[in-house]
Amino acid sequence: MARSVNDEKICALNELQRNIAHHYQWSLNLNRTLVCGTPPKDDTLREDAHCRCKLGRWLNGRGKQYFQNHPRFNTIIEHHKEMHDLARELANSAMREEKISEKAYDAYQDAQSRLRDEIQATHKELHDEIVSTDPLTGAETRTTMQERLNERISSAKYGQIQDWLIMMDLDHFKAVNDTYGHATGDVVLTAVAATVRRQIRANDLFFRYGGEEFLLCISNVDESKMQEISDRIRKSIELTLIKATDGACLSVTASFGVFGLTPDVSVEEAINKADKALYEAKNAGRNCVRFFYDQNYLTAAAATG
Asked: What distances in angstroms separate CA 289 from CA 189, 253, 294, one per listed residue?
């Protein structure tokens, strides 16, 4: 079975860890040169040493392939080159048997520290990003869902609701798997997720809740706009033609349950209420949108109306 993009990225991160270990050994060899007068490695004195060491080759190869769009990646490249430039100056001074100044040595150590700190922070961010993304659909997983939704709920306001949770479930998805196979089921999930992402903004939240269920959080829109958005997503899914693994074309529909967020509702309660609205959509014949209204919302709306 082919590895997913996330699996490939995790392998690349493991390679980064191994190359950090090689870099640590490289720095020990440089210290031997500075303290004991041991001849430096050939590539230490080269102008392009930062491209020739194992860490440098990884950064310009696999690292660049998978992580060059990360905002810290170019900073790591710059710190790595700076560290090598300073190391070359120290090694040349040692080869000439010159006394190395504290200023020059401290500059090298500072560059090493910046490089190390930047790599460690980037590694953690990349790892967290990978494990929080569903490899099939690209939606966020439940790993970060609680924290992300708590942030939206804490910023929600009473009265005119502006933040909304959508529970979305594909209709009759079991029949797709039974008829076309699970491989086609995966194709359907991928296509639907791509369709949804095209209909929402970059700051909207999109989670794979489980199986064929997805959660969305849409912020800064009123109820009328939310009805428009949810129905637009629904229609876009219905109109998406998907090619099965056997070449056949099929389409699917989805049902939606929507709940307006307020600061006094927990993530669990919000999901439960969106799920109740989804249940109403299923009972209404599927491929439709239903909103959940509770008494607290109706009272608050009346008070501000």
From this structure: 19, 11, 17
Q: Does 138 map to a domain?
A: no
Give the Cβ contact number of residue 267 at 10 Å. Answer: 18
| Number of structural domains in the chain | 2
pLDDT at 251: 96
Quote the tokens at residue 245: 């693994």
Same domain, 164 and 291: yes
- Answer yes or no: are the C-beta atoms of 204 and 241 closer than 8 Å: no
Asked if 127 and 151 sit in the same domain, the reply is no
Would 62 be classed as within a structural domain? yes
Q: CA 123, CA 199: separation in Å to the nearest integer?
A: 31
- CB contact at 8 A, 203 and 252: no
d(CA 165, CA 80) in angstroms, rounded, equals 44
Q: Please state at what angle helix 5-36 crosses helix 73-95, rounded to 10 degrees.
A: 20
User: 274 with 256: CB under 8 angstroms?
Assistant: no
Looking at the annotation, which residues are catalytic? 212
Pairwise CA distance, residues 25 & 36, whole Å: 16
- In the predicted structure, residue 298 carries a pLDDT above the cut 50: no
Average pLDDT (210-224) is 95
Same domain, yes or no: 98 and 198: no
* pLDDT on residue 5: 63
* 25 vs 143, residue with greater confidence: 25
